[in-house]
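ERR on first pass: missing label on line 2. Operator R.T. fixed the label and resubmitted. Corrected input:
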Amino acid sequence: MYQLIDGKAISRQIKDELREKVEGLRAQGKEICLAVIQVGSDPASSVYVNNKKKACEYTGIRSLAYELPEETTEEELLALIGELNSREDVNGILVQLPLPAHINEERILLAIDPARDVDGFHPVNVGNLSIGRPGYVSCTPAGVIQLLKRSGIEIEGKECVVLGRSNIVGKPMAMLLLRENGTVTVCHSRTRNLKEITRRADILVVAVGKPGFVDADYVKEGAVVIDVGIHRDENNKLCGDVDFDSVAPHTSAITPVPGGVGPMTIAMLMNNCVEGLR
Ligand code: NAP
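pass 2 clean. output:
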């Protein structure tokens, strides 16, 4: 029987720990503050922003919400980021992606002070991760590491395969598993003999962005499978990149969708805000 990794419970545990920490800091007169900027009113982004606000409320982090109209110019957004960068009372700045097409996303992310880049997307933080220096780490892969550790799954010495090489999930995931002394292989759309490689994995992290892509053929008997994907199926039900029903019986542990990696991303965002307090 496999272990169902409960991301909901683990994320709650992390938020409870942070809540205590935030309370302790407040008692010393220190407040933590996260600024969240949304441009336009993309419904999925609004849900994410709202969930971030709720998590801030839960943990006691002050949140500043900037809901800017779709027609906001790049210069106006850069000016707001510049102002927030200089505010002593703002610990974290997050710009909800995607941005409207007329705004250059890269320019915006580069403008955020790396010391306030709680999403961990700035090249300074990406570089720090790759050379083992402290810095902010992208929240979703950081959440996967917490899921593994808090479920008692050892990473050191394990054959780890990451399926996907995006800048926000696959690449930082690989760096983090390496930091934990896993033996890491990264696969992508040009990988040959994909199943042969994924079947080597003791720990398989799937971030391929295709619903139900990984079936039992991709998985070694007894592997740990972490599903980062989030999609809606034809019945509007949430599902992942892994075909859970066919894969789960062959694993020793697996994350469900929903209730696996998803809730961890926001918990790790809160963690970045608190741990980054200067
Ligand atoms: P992405 O940017 O689309 O990257 C997908 C990766 O998969 C790419 O590296 C791509 O390879 C690779 N790939 C695509 N088709 C493949 C194939 N047939 N064989 C092998 N590799 C293939 O996606 P992402 O942003 O990393 O997100 C991945 C999934 O995680 C999505 O479902 C997304 O919604 C979800 N997600 C969830 C959270 C969360 O909080 N739980 C956070 C972020 C993302 P190439 O590089 O060669 O194109």
